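As described in the Methods, two query proteins were run sequentially through the folding procedure within a single session, without resetting any intermediate state between them. The first query and its resulting structure tokens are shown here.
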Amino acid sequence: MNRHLRAAVVRVVDGSGRRPLAVLLGALIVLAGLWSYAYTHFQLNADLLELLPRDSPGVKAFEHQLGRVGGGFSLVVVVESPDRAKNERFIDALDARVEKLAKARPDLISYVEAGTKDVHAFFEARKWLYADLPDLEKADARLDHEVAVRTGLVESFDEDDAPPAVQGSAGPKATKNKDLGLDEYEQRWKANTSKFDDFPSGYFATPDGTMMALRIVAGSHGLGDAAGDSLLARVRGIVDEVDPKAIDSRMQVGYAGDIANAVEEKDSLVSDAAWATGGAFLLIFLGIVVFFRSPWAPLVLALPAAIGVGAAYTFALARYGYVNTTGAFLGAIILGNGINYPIVLLHRYREFRARGMEPEVARREAVLNAFRAELVGASVAAIAYGSLVVTSFRGFIQFGVIGFVGMLLVWVSMIPCVPALLVID
């Protein structure tokens, strides 16, 4: 080892031994800062595009298409109560507020569908365009006949087709068809279209009206990103403003659709990652207690590993603004691999103490003895993770960056922290 580097390491180790409380206080402050930043800024991006190669022609074409037409991802608000009228009242109030938000934030909401009233109005204004050609031909012939009869151009022997009766006259001739004979065809067309109308009331509702829905189409181009979380949070706030319980105490509101499902899956993913990291820590803790036969040993080893994991996530969140699905589980991996370095250091220290060395000398010699091997080991592990940065898969790139930073900082934080903890031990 270079004598200048050796002298610097000795100064750090001896300084930690002389002022262990100051070193530990500084380490705890750094640890609290790292994890506070990671907790307050944590954002999981579960969008599948984050895991795909950015240079792939298929991905580029898909992203281009998303930019043109949007993702079409929806959020559905479902309301349920025994009273149809109150359900309609809630949907109308919610629709008015969400439409206002859509005008203010077109990037958040593309459009809102509260029912089929607009579709009904569109069809009603253009209903003759949807009639069968034979019916149109018959209706046209009937219309020509009715006009001719009523203008007196031809004589009708059908009582229903007779000209209008003179005012004040009585009898069957006073009754006539005022629709020029088109009511029959219009009713037939309405009957045919009603077969395909699942929501005749104009609302997205069950036949009994006890359950209704409002559909919101997001303006974002991704699924599982921060925009979906923001939209769901804003809609929940609007629902609270409408206050369904004030309309009917029995009213229940739920959320469905692409965005609600994506948020639920993200929460489940975060929970799984937390359980995986916590489970790994517990197993490591028990293994270290059994091996070293000391309840203090896991605390000696856990501090540098926790600093490394916190620094890795903090760096990723500061660099990218989020963590993808592959990076979410990397905490358990860094914890499992990174804790090897303080384990070796603690074991070296105990070996030197068993040989009769003084604690101060044993701490110094343990660090110097393991320094080169552990530096090489940490560097190799960091490079192995960092090599993923050269791939075209975005998910692997972030995985590699987090692993690279985490493994190196576990080793760096170990040099001052472990000697200070050994003094207290």
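Immediately afterward, the second query was submitted; its sequence and tokens are:
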Amino acid sequence: MRWCFASVAAVALQQPRASLRQPPAPAHERLTLTADGVVYDVTDFDHPGGRELLLAHAGEDVTHLVASNHRRPANALRAARVKRHGAGGSYFDRGADLYDALKGEVRAAVGDPPATIAAAALWPYAARVACVVACQRGCLPALFATLYGLLLGRSVWTVTHEYVHAPARWPRWVRTLHALDFANVGAIWLAEHHRHHAATNRDGDPDRRWFEPVVPGFDALAADRRRGGLGVLLRACFVYPLLPLFMVARVATFLLRGDGADAAAPRTRAARRALAIGGALALPRFALDALLLHPFYPLTFLAATSYLALTFVATHTADEANYAQTKAPTTQDEWLVDQIASTNDVRADGPVYTWLTGGINCHSAHHVFPNLPGAKLGAATEVLRRFSARHGLPYRNFSPAGLWGSHASFLLGRRAPEERRCPVTS
């Protein structure tokens, strides 16, 4: 399957295949999405990215997501040939000169990804089996138990996170294997992660308040620097390694509450089913790791969770500059600037660090092109960096130490230097 920069006929919304057509669904079962004021009936639509994406956003406004995931969003919607209601606005037809130019440059630089990326999921399994064998034989067991945890953490970015953005990119057997291995966390995360992309650092972004009530919401800290302090920093040091637990708790709360949706709606049923499957798999799955890596499993757990926290938590919270965009974007170009301003890259010019972090360090390119495979983010980031320098966009690329030093100051309540509060490029 080709991604958003391939031809509209191959990638954009396509007609459903005849073999997959189902009898008409009852009115309350139909799936609809809203984009730029137009309601689209996608009940019978065969989305090339996976039907899971449609279920996750049924009944929602997906304007920004359509724009960021398609080379020509207006053409993609027209190519869908689904029922639509409403005249719509002009979001897809104007105010996109910068974004469209950037998409063209990135397409020319990165080309199309492989048809499948199953190989990316296979070698970590072989490496983890080798770690288990080493632990069982008593060969540096503490070291290999820690390495096992780091491999688990990296797979969250290279497999789980990529599944969340393009489920159909993975062969079914890889999706099944990964669901069993990670207790269905990809399907659970899919139910809410795209809201983070649609409203980064704004109302509606679930990532802003993961650690409440232990650590205040990041948006609250940015709005009132007096809320920071040494106590906040110390509590953050304690809870950040527990990031996956807070994420699961937040997502589970979100799904169980239904986000205001009808409990019988397809979106809610699908999300709660994913949560139920994950809950049933979690205990036996991770008990198996604990048994195989005993007595060093705590090192595995700490390595995996610390890796995830260190590679992700501060990518939108270096300082208050990440929250400086107070006006909601009304055009695609404004949304592009908003995404760059609210996101931080980390050693994105270092191929070794990019590989170690599974590409998540190239976070600005990921937000601007969310369904671009991680293996292509390094090349896309170089284009984005040069493009930002030419057009004065607020792109920032930190060193790991620089990012976490800035984030620590943010938690302490210190104001960022003036040049950081109004960044240009670095």
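The chain has 20 helices and five strands. We note this only descriptively and draw no conclusion about the first query from it.
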